[in-house]
Write a structure and sequence with these properties.
Structural class: alpha/beta
Number of domains: 2
Low-confidence stretches: none
Distance between the termini: 33 Å
Oligomer: single chain
Strand content: 15-25%
Radius of gyration: 21 Å
Helix content: 25-40%
Length: 416
């Protein structure tokens, strides 16, 4: 079967926000955005050929015109580069208890917390977990998120972690979104493990990671570096083993206490995620590294805690991405634009910084250089909004949904 070599053209659109020629790190002014008015987008075989004035593109020979349902504003597809959507059960009771004044430890002792999600996830079959993961991925996709990172971490044994990662692999067949797997076996020391944290991490490194590598279930390894999970001293040997096997590293860092960002820099991680308690010391450390800083406003909203200092991180010269942290405990919302807009309001981010944080900067934090920008050679992943201008999109704080979602040059349809 031959690949489709037809050149397709969609437009004209009121605005195309290309995200072209913007830096990977540091602050951004809205005046730096390249916005094409009355433009079109031309693609072939799922890759963008040109983004320019519509009439100019329409004059090219052999172009097949596709009529969009609305001719509003076009943005690149979004990337949600930190989620935990492969899980079973619910933690609604935790949310109610937390809002009623219960502490995290009290909730855990009463049967809630991460361990309750581990038990619910372990109880599911691979197929059942895959279906739930795909359903959540499709919810994000309908909101315009075309690339989604998905962590394990609710298995916390060799067999259960493999089940989670195999379920994520199976979920890829049930969604048009690109799912990027990450092994988070180092989420916490499981309650049923009879041994030390060091022994658990050694088991995961020796018995789990080689199987993941052999089955190509993930190329990323994550860990929760925190007093309630794993210390800097405990996690460094694990990360060094993972890196020696060829895994990329990412870190849950500085959520409640600091040290995680220092670990991320020390091991050359792709990103340090959370950062709600990062101080000037950690911000400077990240700014002088190639580690992306990832803000997770959904966790701040879910826990009622401070936001990551995104403004300070940007002004220091960091590359700041924004992700949902969608998980059943601290961030059950799963609405990327809403969270990004709220973070922007509290941290005084420009629209350019907001959009960069969920497009090309988020993609780069996952190691991708082929998405998040509307330019030749990039994937034809784009969104069409029924809006007069791009400023309307963050202004409506997630309530304005894309009228169309395109993935690899294909217009997606969704069923309720």
């Amino acid at each position: 079967m031959h690949a489709d070599t037809t050149c397709y053209l969609a437009g004209p659109f009121r605005e195309l926000v290309t995200m072209q020629a913007l830096p990977l790190k540091g602050p951004l002014n809205d005046s730096a955005l390249r916005v094409i008015r009355n433009g079109g987008i031309l693609w072939k075989a799922g890759r963008i050929e040109a983004v320019a004035d519509f009439e100019t593109l329409a004059a090219r020979p052999g172009v097949t015109l596709i009529e969009p349902s609305v001719k509003g504003v076009v943005l690149p597809g979004f990337t949600d580069m930190h989620t935990h959507i492969a899980f079973g059960g619910s933690r609604a009771a935790d949310f109610a208890l937390r809002n009623g004044g219960s502490t995290y430890l009290e909730i855990a002792e009463s049967g809630g917390g991460i361990w309750s999600t581990v038990k619910a996830t372990r109880a599911l079959t691979v197929d059942a977990l895959a279906k739930r993961t795909a359903q959540r991925a499709n919810t994000l996709l309908q909101q315009g998120v075309t690339t989604i990172e998905v962590k394990s971490g609710y298995g916390l044994s060799v067999a259960a972690e493999l089940k989670c990662l195999r379920a994520i692999a199976e979920a890829r067949r049930m969604t048009s979104a690109d799912l990027v797997s990450t092994c988070l076996a180092a989420h916490m020391l499981p309650s049923d493990f009879n041994g030390s944290a060091a022994a658990y991490l050694e088991l995961m490194a020796d018995a789990l990671l080689p199987v993941i590598k052999n089955e190509q279930l993930a190329h990323r390894v994550d860990a929760f570096v925190e007093r309630s999970a794993f210390s800097e001293a405990q996690i460094l040997p694990y990360f060094k083993k993972a890196k020696a096997m060829g895994f990329d590293i990412t870190v849950h860092a500085d959520q409640f206490t600091t040290s995680g960002s220092a670990v991320a820099v020390a091991v050359g991680a792709k990103s340090a995620d959370h950062l709600e308690h990062s101080t000037g010391k950690e911000i400077a450390l990240l700014a002088h590294s190639d580690v992306a800083a990832v803000a997770l406003p959904g966790a701040s909203l879910g826990l009622g805690c401070p936001f990551a200092p995104a403004r300070k991180l940007l002004d220091a010269g960091c590359s700041v991405a924004i992700a949902t942290d969608w998980n059943p405990g601290s961030a059950p919302m799963g609405n990327l634009m809403l969270q990004a807009a709220v973070l922007a309001a509290f941290e005084k981010l420009t629209n350019a910084e907001l959009l960069a944080g969920i497009t090309y900067r988020a993609a780069a934090a996952l190691g991708f250089k082929d998405r998040g920008v509307l330019a030749p050679g990039y994937r034809a992943d784009f969104l069409v909004y029924d809006a007069d201008g791009y400023q309307e999109i963050p202004y409506h704080q997630g309530s304005l949904q894309p009228a169309e979602v395109w993935k690899n040059g294909t217009r997606l349809t969704f069923t309720d």
